[in-house]
Amino acid sequence: MSGTGAIGLMALFLVDLLDMFFISLLGEVELAAAIGFAGTLIFFSTSVSIGTSIAMGALVSRALGANEAEKARQLTVNVMIFAVIICAILVSLMLWQLPQLLAMIGATGNVAAAATDYLVILLPSAPFIAISMSAGAALRGIGDARRSMIATLIGGGVNAVLDPLFIFGLSMGMEGAAIASVFARLA
Question: Domain residues for 165?
Answer without folding.
Answer: 2-186
